[in-house]
Amino acid sequence: xxxxxxxxxxxxxxxxxxxxxxxxxxxxxxxxxxxxxxxxxxxxxxxxxxxxxxxxxxxxxxxxxxxxxxxxxxxxxxxxxxxxxxxxxxxxxxxxxxxxxxxxxxxxxxxxxxxxxxxxxxxxxxxxxxxxxxxxxxxxxxxxxxxxxxxxxxxxxxxxxxxxxxxxxxxxxxxxxxxxxxxxxxxxxxxxxxxxxxxxxxxxxxxxxxxxxxxxxxxxxxxxxxxxxxxxxxxxxxxxxxxxxxxxxxxxxxxxxxxxxxxxxxxxxxxxxxxxxxxxxxxxxxxxxxxxxxxxxxxxxxxxxxxxxxxxxxxxxxxxxxxxxxxxxxxxxxxx
Length: 336
Hints:
Shape: elongated
Strand content: 5-15%
Helix content: over 70%
CATH topology of the largest domain: Outer membrane efflux proteins (OEP)
Largest sheet: 2 strands, antiparallel
Structural class: mainly alpha
Strand order of the largest sheet: 1-2
CATH class of the largest domain: Mainly Alpha
Distance between the termini: 50 Å
C-alpha cells in the first residue's frame, strides 16, 4: 500500500509537470510568433523605404533623360528596379497577416481578432542588456520535462515494490453483519442479527513464475525511465549550449551589419550625387541601392534572430523561474 501511494503521488506530480511543460512550449511559441511578426513589419518598413528611394531615383533619371543627358536604357532600368522593389511589398503583408492569425490562434481567439492591435508597429523587442543563463543544477530544477521524467522514474521505481509485494503471502480478514427476519416486526430485533467473520489467505507461490516475470518487466521499465531521464538531461544541456552559441554568433553578426548599413547609406548618397552630376553611370547607382536594401533587410532579420535566440535560450532553461543564480553575458562569453 505504501508503494502504491508513492506511485500515485509520483504520477500526479508527473501530470502537473507535463502541464507545465506544455505551458512553457505555448508561451515560447507565442513569443516566437510575436517577434517574427515584428521582424516582418520591420522588413516591410525597409522595403517601403526602398520603394520610396527607387521612385526618387526614377524622377532624377527621368529628368536627365528628358534633358537628353542619359539614354533610354537608364530610364528602363530605373523603372525595372522600382517594379522589382514594389513586388516585395505584398509578400510582407501576407506574412504579417499569417503571423497575426497564428498569434490569435495561440491565444485562443479567432483569426483576425488581433489585427487592429498588432498592425500598430512597435518595432522588434529589444534584447535584454543582461541575458539570464542558469547553471546546470538550476536547469534540472526548472525544466518541466526533466522533472516529469524524474517523476516517471520515481513512479516506475515504486511500482517495482508493488510487483515485488506479490511474492509475499496475503492475509485478509473478511466479515459481514446484518439482519434477517421473515416478520417485519422482528426485522431489527437482536434475534434477527447475523454475522460472519474469518480470515482469508493467498500466496502466489505456484503461479508458474508469473510474479517474477512481472518484477523483471517492471525492472526493465525502470531502466527505460532512467535512460529517458538521462537523455532529457543531456538534451537540455545541448539546447542551452546551442542557444548560447547561436546568440553569441548572431550578436557579432548584428554588430557588423549595423556598420555595413551605415556605410551603405553613405555610399548610396554619394553615388546618387555623383550620378546627378554626370560623373558615373547608372550601374553604380543600381549597385549601391541594391546593397543598401539587402543590408537593411539582413539587419532586420538579425535583430529578430537575436530575440529569437533569447527566447530559445529561456525555453531551453525551462522558463518561469525567479530569484535563481544567473550568469551574465560576460561570464557566458568567457565560458564559450
